[in-house]
Amino acid sequence: MRPAGTVVYDRVVADAGAALSAALDRSLTGYAVLEPQDTLLLDEDGAGVFALRDGAPVAAAHTDTGRRGADAVADAAVSGPYRVTLHRHPPGPDHDPAAAVDPGVPADILADDAALAERTRRVAPADAASPAADSPDAVGAFLENEEKIDAIRERAREEAAERAAEWGFEDALD
Amino acid sequence: MVEALAVASGKGGTGKTTATLALGMALAEEHDVTVVDADTGMANLLFHAGLDGAETTLHDLLIEGADATLADATYERFGMRVVPCGTDLADFAAADPGRLRDVVADLAADTDVLLLDSPATLGSKSAVLPVVLADRVVLVLQPTVPALSDGLKVQEYAVSYDTGIAGVLFNRVRDPAAVEEVESTGADYFEGPTLGAVPEDDAAPAARRAGRPLLEHAPDSDAAAAFREAAAALDVRPGDSTAVAERFRQAVVPEEP
Q1: What residue ranges do the domains of chain A occupy?
Q2: Under an 8 A CB cutoff, do B189 and A149 touch?
Q3: C-alpha span between B8 and B154 (Å, rounded)
Q4: How confident is the model at residue A130 (pLDDT cuts 50, 70, 90)?
Q5: Residue-range definition of the domain harbouring residue B83
Q6: Cβ contact A51:A31 at 8 Å
Q7: pLDDT (mean) for B151-164
Q8: Which of B2, B32, B70 is closest to B244 using CA atoms?
């Protein structure tokens, strides 16, 4: 799944909820690319690519892990700011069924925002995926990505050590 | 003999303060418990404990030159000692987080279990300080991707600062299958045992509105029962009070630049 069409929005927002809201508020049909700004975390330029219909995500893929659907959403989940790029593009042929997501799932997984998920589901086209990608699946997909979990833990340890120096906690370090 | 436990989440909305007071009340059946609102920037424990009218709070102990004593800021409530924090931003600005070390040291000398309700962030020195000072951390998490991600970060901070992990308490659980998923797929990632899974329960916000801890307001609720089970699963490991107090006093905390 490759984003195409005219870029209508491109900026860094505070979190994934703001990124998803930007697409929803524009009722955009096309693509959204969500790139976590904490790139140190992954040491790569991985991004979540979402196909949008009327502002609601209907399919997802991850540029780094190559996974699709709810797994791809879990791969894009990082707390903190995201760079969001919105592309306006006419709806194409149906996406790979493996990439389909329930429209509320990205808001649930990336932003933990039930209200945004519900708002998204209400505007999503009737033929969008049914809510099969429920929370246990998303949690499982997130935890199965061992590389990503290791990266989160490693980055946190580095941050803890940097801050120990900054805040004078060195004596507490192992 | 005392053990200091930081109750932390790394993320807001996990019900950490509800959990702190619930664990405190359950542990108070066997131990002498003191609960401290160590979230000095966004205090809310006082609302949960009906102490919003408290005249003296932790803030008054953290301000240089203030003449309040620890006894003034300590309230006997619900079978525990509670040290609330105020909500005045001016007081927060004037507070010296380093003084928390001395307050915790004084409290440690006179209790069995010291629960530090910690800030839901790792963004500042005062937010990380409870994790640095505590013997171990209780992680309060919802079984969701963002909460697990932030919980892992708190865990790594704790381990980096030689603070142990007492366990993971899943709270506000809507789908028990998600907790099972964490226990099967993510069992290797968290250092401590799973203490329990507390279901999402309307009794918790109702208790908060009533200004009473959940175990006082709705002791027969499903959530209260689950918190009591979690407290029973927590193996309190009290250390020598003098040594713990001394460690707090020795913790190197520089002045704010």
Answers
A1: 6-172
A2: yes
A3: 8
A4: very low
A5: 3-250
A6: yes
A7: 93
A8: B2
Question: pLDDT tens across B202-224, in order?
Answer: 999 999 999 999 999 999 999 99
Q: Which of B145, B247, B248 to mutate to test the interface with A (most CBs of A within 10 A)?
A: B145
Distance from CA of A37 to the nearest CA of B (A): 16
Report the domain count for chain B.
1
Q: Are B236 and B112 in contact (CB under 8 A)?
A: yes
Answer whether residue B100 is part of any domain. yes
| Sheet of B136-141, strands arranged across | B75-77, B80-83, B33-37, B113-117, B3-8, B136-141, B164-173, B194-199
Using left for φ > 0, alpha for ψ between -120 and 50, and beta otherwise, residue A146 falls in alpha
Tell me the shortest Cα–Cα distance from B76 to chain A, in angstroms: 32
The better pLDDT of the pair B253, A60 is held by A60
CB spacing of A143 vs B161 below 8 angstroms: no
Q: Is 0.90 topped by the overall pTM? A: no
Residues of B with Cβ-Cβ distance to A108 under 8 angstroms: 144
A-chain residues near B174 (CB < 8 A): 135
Mean pLDDT of A129-153: 74
Q: Name the residue facing B161 among A77, A140, A173 (closest C-beta).
A: A173
Residues of B in contact with A111 (CB under 8 A): 146
| B154 in a structural domain | yes
- CATH number at B60 reads 3.40.50.300
Are the beta carbons of B56 and B248 closer than 8 angstroms? no
